[in-house]
Amino acid sequence: MAEVVTQQAQTDTQSRFWGFAGFWGLHAWIFAYSFVMLSAFYIQFVEGEFPCPLCMLQRYGMILSTAGALLIVMQARRGTLTTAKYSQGLGMGLLGALIGGAEVSVRQILLHIKPGDPGYGAPVLGIHLYTWALITFIIVIAYCGVQLVLAPRGIPQAPPEGSPLRTLSTVIIWIFIGVVAANVVAIIFLEGFAWVLPDDPTGYNLIDQFRGK
Amino acid sequence: MILLLVILLLIWRGANRHLIIALWFVGLVAVVGLFRFHVTSALDLSF
Known about the structure:
The complex is a heterodimer of chains A (213) and B (47). Helices cover 73% and strands 0% of the residues of chain A. Chain A has 213 residues and is mostly helical. In chain A, helix 1 packs antiparallel against helix 2, helix 1 packs parallel to helix 5 and helix 2 packs antiparallel against helix 3 (83-111). The termini of chain A are far apart. By secondary structure, chain B is mainly α. Chain B has two helices and no strands. The longest helix of chain B is centred in the middle third of the chain and has 22 residues, at 17-38. The radius of gyration of chain B is 16 Å and the shape is rod-shaped. Chain B starts with a helix and ends in a 9-residue tail after the last helix. Classes of the chains: A mainly alpha (213), B mainly alpha (47). At the A-B interface, helix 2, helix 3 and helix 5 of A face helix 1 and helix 2 of B.
């Protein structure tokens, strides 16, 4: 009887560990893409490099894939997460990273792959931003694959309401939503009264249009 | 981009999951469409 109780306790501890790791793994994903997009803002506003349409499409891919992670996190926080919903969220993450993001990154890398081509924009740590973007998409795709293989282990368990960890989770989510909202404002300024970005943007179209340029 | 923000806010508010996934697919198709729009030249990979 004591052996059964000990086994049960071990199983509970393992389950809590995997639930904890699953929950905060998704937050790491959400926070990492917030950081990536904030870094892109730094390059845009401080270093004065304007994002090309392919750069913006890669940001869309990051947001699309992270929507899957966010869906899982919110279901876990509400206590309504099931294995099926978990798989749907990871599937959104996979497709968003693959079709929305990696496809665009690969295209941009191939555009500048010829010897002597300086690439688009300044490199960061020796690698151009679109190559970094592809690396992040590959990490997301691998993460989703590993989580799907491990399932039902790793299905997130949210910390109880009112706990500091719950607050941290809320902060991470709102940083991401805030960064996406800032992107909406930025793209309105970049595009101005047009449906799409110019191929090689050199300024903020909205401001130029108001000035009558 | 506005659609993507709306999707995130719907997820936060706990809207119907089928609505979220449907809008998410619209977003994915829109991104693919934008990609097709912007990619107009063939890749020159002759080294």
